[in-house]
Structure of Enamine deaminase RidA (YjgF/YER057c/UK114 family):
Amino acid sequence: MTNEISKRLEDLGITLPVAAAPAANYVPYVISGNTLYLSGQLPIEGGKVAVTGIVGKDVALEDAKRAAELCAINILAQASAALGGDLTRVKRLIKINGFVASAQDFTNQHLVINGASDLLVNVLGEAGKHARAAVGMACLPLNAAVEIDAILEIA
């Protein structure tokens, strides 16, 4: 990992966790050519889903944004694992897809996913600017409030 990325993580008080193992019949990532596809990451902290429930019902906006930040941290951890610990191989974060377990009348999914977008840009710099989707869902696996997957261009 570059000193720049390490420094940014340190400045943000972030230590990347060990990448989570798959919870079902899938792989955590696939590399095809110069593209890294990461499976959906949940807001796991300390080995458990840290933010559960329905946003706009049992989960406040700020807590949901924190869940998105945790997903982003887990995206970085998974990318690091896929790249042998070398995040300098990330040329560009191409796209994230953010899924928010939402109450029927909750319409601020974009604000929730900003938690992940902001963190990824803060850590990766210009290479972290990405396209994205922010989508409301009825529910998510393990009652997680947020799930985010990612596509990255790698060297």
Remarks:
- The chain has a mean pLDDT of 96.
- The radius of gyration is 15 Å.
- The chain has one domain: 3-16+33-154.
- DSSP finds three helices and seven strands in the chain.
